[in-house]
C-alpha cells in the first residue's frame, strides 16, 4: 500500500470516526466494514456541500480498500439520495482505480432503472468525474431521455464536466459520445447545454455532419448551440462548417444567432475568414459594424484565438 493511500485512509477514518491500525507493518485488510462506515457518516449529518464533497473525494480514494460486495449491497439498499451519491461515487472509483467495469455498471444501472427520480439523479451525479463515458458510452443517450428534468440536467453536466476534466477536452470518442447524447436528448435545453459546453476540437466526421444537421432545428437554443459547436470543429471539417454557417446567416433572422455565426466563422478561418465575413455585410445592415470589428481584428494576423477574442473585446469597448 502506498504512503499516499495510507494517509488517505487516515483522513477517511478521521472524518467518519473509524479507527485504523498502525501503519507498521502495512495493513492488508479493509478500512472497516462498509456498514460501520456509513453509520458514522449518517451520525454526522449531511453537513455542508463542501463537507459532502470532501467526504466523497476521500471515499473515492479509499474505495479500492473497501469490500466490494458490502459496498454494492449498501448501494442497492440505500434510499437517501445523498448516500446513494456517496456510495455510487465510491463504486465508480473502484472501476477507475482497479479497471473492474462491474462496480460502475452497477451505478449506471441504478441511474437508468431506479423508480425514484431523485435516486436516478443521485446515481447519475455519482458518475461525474469518472470513466463512465468510456466504460458505458451508450448510457448517456438514455439518461438524456429520462422522464425527470433533474436526471436530464445531471446527465448534461456530467457530459460537459467529464469530456473536459476526465478526458482533457481532446479525446475524440468522448466528444463523439457527448454529441450523440446531445442529439438524442428529448430536451432542447439539454442539447444546447452539451453542445455549448463540450469541446469539439477532436470530433469525428460523422459528428461534424450531425452538428451541421442541427442548424435546421426549429429550436432557437439548439441552433445557437450548434453554431457555437461548429466554430470549434477540427481543421478537416472547417470548410464544410463555414459553408453551412454562411448559408444559415442568410436564412437566420435571430440577431443573437447571427452574431454567434460571425464569431464561429472567424474562429474557423482566422484571417482566411475575412472574405466570407465581408460577403455578409449587406445581409443585415445592423450587424455590419460587428463584421467590420471582426475584419479589423483578423487583419492583425494573430495566431491565438484567445488573443483574437481579447482584441475583439477591446475593439467593442473602443466603439462604445
Number of strands: 0
Helix content: 55-70%
The ordered H/E elements are HHHHHHHHHHHHHHHHHHH
Poorly predicted tracts of residues: 1-31
Beta percentage is under 5%
Structural classification: mainly alpha
Kindly state the mean pLDDT as a whole number?
A: 86
Tally of individual helices: 19
- Straight-line N-to-C gap: 62 Å
Q: What's the main sheet like?
A: none
Spatial shape: elongated
Computed over alpha carbons, the radius of gyration is 24 Å
What descriptors fit this protein?
320 residues; mainly alpha; 19 helices; elongated
In brief:
By secondary structure, this protein is mostly helical.
3D structure, described in words:
With 320 residues, the chain is mainly alpha-helical. 68% of the residues lie in helices and 0% in strands. It contains 19 helices and no strands. Helix 12 runs parallel beside helix 14 (220-230) and helix 14 (220-230) packs parallel to helix 16 (255-269). Residues 1-31 have low confidence and may be disordered.
Write the layout of secondary structure elements.
Elements: H1 3-16, H2 34-43, H3 49-62, H4 68-77, H5 81-98, H6 101-113, H7 117-126, H8 132-135, H9 139-143, H10 149-165, H11 172-184, H12 188-197, H13 205-213, H14 220-230, H15 238-251, H16 255-269, H17 274-278, H18 288-298, H19 305-319
